[in-house]
Every structure is written in structure tokens, then in C-alpha cells.
Design a protein that fits this description.
single chain; about 290 residues; alpha/beta; TIM Barrel; eight-stranded parallel beta sheet; two-stranded antiparallel ribbon
């Protein structure tokens, strides 16, 4: 079910509010590029700073705009199990196709705690679930054995977005999970290496900015054309890195503001890009012909 290029959508803001019009245009760009899915209000969508009402409304808008033309995978993770369940059930009620659930952040549960957290959410919904392991932001990694246990225990836990940056761990995961379980890159710069050892796609940040180019790279890698995929990876590599020179999604919003798609507004505690970082990013955009 989960394969190819899906975009971890930013949430556009204007004067402190969600900019629904800009968000709708962003989704239409993804669909026009032929992407396999969109992920509203994941962590790239600044989900921790949205109210429950805003969070669910963004999911509803994404579903209404997509109109089944692409998968809508709603971000419903939280460091509170009860809140994650509430968001997940709200996404199911809104008719999302699936949910993406990030590991709890800050509270650093044990592996048993992670297993019980995701199990409780899985029992609360019939929606397919993509787990999300990003230890650099959450302070805890969903262990390989824990992922395998969850995949075996719950039929609706069907995929993992992996942001460890390690092909070694991806290889261990590939050996541990069922063949039907999808492994997805969570880092644009690791997508081609991950596909080479068993991943089947990416949940991408860069595809907010260059959806067609990211999809072309992923499609080549999935087709086994690694010469083409490598060339495209190396061409886009400076962008992949510069989109994280300051906390995500600050650089992505700056790039799309320059393209004329939306404001570069973010919510505290995030702030707009510093001038030096902005100049570096914009130079990369110019060099790659992105305007």
C-alpha cells in the first residue's frame, strides 16, 4: 500500500492562522506531480504547535482537496497516548486513508512503553498505521525488535518511516519485518541508499519544494535504475542538506515563500531563518534552477 513518494506537508500560516488557501495550492502541486501520497500535520506540519481543533481541521481540508486522487496519511502522533488516540480516531472519522504516528517525544519511554503506546493506538482504530522513528528529534528510537513485535501483533501496523540515517539499521529492519511491511525513508538524503537495501519509498520534506524532481529520483531507484537515481540524488543533495540547516520546516517555508507559494511564517518556538542561512539556501536554489 505504501510505496513511492509521499510529501510531509508543511502547514502554511498567515497572520497567526492556518492559511487554508496556500495549503490547498500546496496539495494540488503534489497531486499534479503524481505523488503517491501526502502527509498533513506530521511533525513537518508543526503539529506540536497546532491546537486539537486546528490539527483535525487541517486533516479534513487535506482529505477534501485530495478527493481520493492521492493517499492522505494523517499525522496523529503525540507524546500522550490518549491524545494520539483522539487524533487518530478523528482522522478515521474524517476518512483519512492511513495515519503516521511519531514516537513519543521528551518522555523517553522504554521499548515496552513504546510497544504498549503503539498497541493502544492500533487497537483504537481500523486505519493502517505507519510508525515513525526519528531519535534525533524524539530522544528515543523504536527498536528493531519492537517494530517487528508491533508488525506481528497488529495487522493494521503496516509500515515504518525510518529517520535513523543508518543503512545498517534499515538492513536489520528489512530482515526482521514481514515482506508485506513497508519501510520508508524519512530523510531525503538517505532515500536512494535506503531503497538499495529494501526501502520502498520516502516521506519527503524536499518534495514540498521540488515534488517532480524528488518523484523522478525515487521512481528511478525503485525501477532499479540506480545510475539515474544516483545522478538525481547528487544533483539534489545540496538542497536536501540545506533544508535542514535550521530546524525543519523553517528552510522549506523560506524556499516556498521565495517561490511565491506561501508566507515563511512559523510558530514559536520556531522562528524565521537567519539571514546567513537564508542566503546559503537561496544560493543553492539558484544553482539548482529552483525559482
Amino acid at each position: 500500500m505504501f510505496k513511492g513518494t509521499m510529501t510531509a506537508l508543511v502547514t502554511p500560516f498567515k497572520d497567526g492562522r492556518v492559511d487554508t488557501r496556500a495549503f490547498e495550492q500546496l496539495i494540488e502541486r503534489q497531486i499534479a506531480a503524481g505523488l503517491e501520497g501526502i502527509v498533513p500535520v506530521g511533525t513537518t506540519g508543526e503539529s506540536p504547535t497546532l491546537s486539537m481543533e486546528e490539527h483535525l481541521r487541517v486533516i479534513e481540508v487535506a482529505i477534501q482537496v485530495a478527493r481520493k486522487r492521492t493517499l492522505v496519511v494523517a499525522g496523529t502522533g503525540s507524546n500522550s497516548t490518549a491524545e494520539a488516540i483522539e487524533l487518530t480516531q478523528g482522522a478515521e472519522k474524517a476518512k483519512a486513508d492511513a495515519v503516521l504516528i511519531v514516537a513519543p517525544y521528551y518522555n523517553k519511554p522504554s521499548q515496552e512503553g513504546l510497544f504498549e503506546h503503539f498497541s493502544a493506538i492500533a487497537r483504537s482504530t481500523d486505519l493502517p498505521i505507519i510508525l515513525y522513528s526519528i531519535p534525533g528529534r524524539c530522544g528515543v528510537e523504536i527498536g528493531v525488535e519492537t517494530v517487528a513485535r508491533l508488525a506481528q501483533a497488529h495487522q493494521n501496523i503496516r509500515a515504518l518511516k525510518e529517520s535513523s540515517g543508518s543503512t545498517d539499521r534499515l538492513s536489520l529492519l528489512k530482515r526482521a519485518v514481514p515482506e508485506s511491511f513497508s519501510l520508508l525513508s524519512g530523510d531525503d538524503y538517505m532515500t536512494v541508499p535506503f531503497i538499495s537495501v529494501g526501502a520502498v519509498g520516502v516521506i519527503s520534506v524536499a518534495s514540498n519544494v521540488v515534488p517532480l524532481r524528488v518523484k523522478k529520483m525515487v521512481d528511478a531507484a525503485l525501477a532499479g535504475d540506480f545510475a539515474s537515481a544516483q545522478k538525481q540524488h547528487l544533483d539534489l543533495y545540496p538542497l536536501f542538506k540545506d533544508l535542514f540547516i535550521e530546524p525543519n520546516p523553517v528552510p522549506s517555508k523560506a524556499a516556498m515563500h521565495r517561490q511565491g507559494w506561501m508566507s515563511d511564517e512559523v510558530r514559536l518556538p520556531l522562528v524565521k531563518m537567519s539571514e546567513g542561512a537564508r542566503e546559503k539556501l537561496f544560493l543553492t536554489l539558484d544553482q539548482l534552477g529552483i525559482n
